[in-house]
Write a structure and sequence with these properties.
single chain; about 260 residues; alpha+beta
Length: about 260
């Protein structure tokens, strides 16, 4: 009998941004985890050719990258609930190599997934149902998104999201981030441009600037996401920033 680590799973693919191929082994998956831990690559996305149905949910892909605050790993699962029109991406931080490998092995080889009680929602792509929350000290209304379970605020063409209702200080920080985002948009676009060349061919920096769409910034996670990019209609772009000036950018990812 072929060992599960040597067996080729022909209906699965590995995508690391610079290349993608179908027909994978768990041994290859593990080599990608080592490469992430050794900082030789930023992430790996492992996808079935057709979403896996488990307990009335469709599981679309699993993604792994470095944990931002530790030397461990961060893992994400994309899930579409029965009847929903968009996916929810769940994430979990601070996992060890073997923990991540076991989750992926169970998913690929046995179509088993962990309970998500202690996972957090990283991104919710379902149609939004919003209610409004007023704060007289803010120049604009803050919206509470019922599905995201986040507060959102739009300013200078940017959408900001918080898990907790933002204070005036949070809003002041968001205004600073907006100023610095627009101030450093050329370096941000250059960073994105260099990351997507292998995906979308010989696009120009000006094309990237006009096609990435409105940024969504989560100050609590130091993350920027683009759900409205027009290079295709299936992926979202994201990256993390390690300073408030958007000069230290990391972990660019293409999900979907």
């Amino acid at each position: 009998m072929i060992d599960t680590f040597e067996k080729t799973y022909t209906d699965w693919s590995i995508d690391v941004g610079t290349y993608k191929y179908e027909g994978i082994t768990l041994n290859e998956v593990e080599q990608n985890l080592y490469a992430i831990e050794d900082q030789e690559q930023d992430f790996v996305v492992i996808s079935p050719s057709k979403a896996i149905s488990i307990d009335n949910k469709l599981y679309n892909f699993v993604q792994v990258c470095s944990d931002q605050d530790t030397d461990l790993l961060h893992i994400e699962l994309s899930i579409t609930n029965d009847g929903d029109r968009g996916a929810i991406i769940y994430g979990k931080n601070e996992l060890g190599h073997q923990e991540v490998l076991q989750i992926i092995e169970d998913f690929i080889a046995h179509h088993k997934v962990p309970t998500l009680d202690d996972w957090e929602i990283v991104l919710d792509l379902r149609p939004k149902m919003e209610s409004y929350v007023k704060d007289s000290k803010m120049t604009n209304d803050v919206k509470y998104d019922e599905l995201l379970k986040q507060y959102t605020w739009s300013y200078e063409g940017i959408q900001f999201c918080w898990d907790e209702k933002p204070t005036d200080a949070n809003v002041d920080t968001a205004k600073l981030l907006a100023t610095n985002y627009h101030k450093n948009i050329d370096s941000i676009v250059t960073f994105i441009h260099n990351e997507i060349l292998d995906w979308y061919g010989d696009v120009t920096i000006d094309e990237v600037k006009t096609r990435i769409g409105m940024p969504i910034i989560e100050p609590e996670r130091d993350a920027v996401t683009y759900c409205e990019q027009t290079f295709d209609d299936t992926h979202i772009f994201s990256f993390t920033f390690w300073d408030n000036e958007f000069k230290d950018l990391h972990y660019f990812a293409i999900d979907g």
